[in-house]
Write a structure and sequence with these properties.
With 116 residues, this protein is mostly helical. The protein is globular. The protein contains three helices and no strands. Keywords: Membrane, Transmembrane, Transmembrane helix. This is Integral membrane protein.
Length: 116
């Protein structure tokens, strides 16, 4: 439950920083928040895998890496929507979904570059 409080505090801090710094820092703030969120999600996944007794597999390339990104986006999108809308209103909602869109866009771009 502590992770949810940390995410909420990070989101509030990011929205407040955006208000203070203005729109020219929005991209950097979003990237910073998304990085922290990504680290939190990775930590949770590792903890759940370890708790379930699943062996830690060596890194291998999946045949379709888009599926985990899409499912992860929806998985974090639903609670982030509620948290952001409740605590920061429309600006928080846009910031949260902007980060999710940015992650998906970056993933799609990297897959597109791999094919070329």
């Amino acid at each position: 439950m502590q992770d949810y409080q940390d995410i909420r505090q990070d989101m509030r801090a990011t929205v407040e920083a955006r208000r203070d710094l203005g729109p020219e820092y929005e991209t950097a703030l979003i990237e910073s928040f998304v990085s922290r969120l990504d680290a939190t999600i990775a930590h949770r996944v590792r903890a759940e895998m370890h708790a379930a007794g699943a062996p830690m597999a060596k890194s291998r390339k999946s045949s379709n890496g888009s599926i985990p990104i899409a499912l992860g986006s929806m998985g974090i999108g639903i609670p982030l929507t509620a948290i952001a809308a409740q605590n920061a209103g429309t600006a928080g909602l846009l910031l949260a979904w902007g980060g999710i869109v940015a992650i998906n866009f970056a993933h799609a771009l990297s897959r597109w570059r791999e094919r070329d």
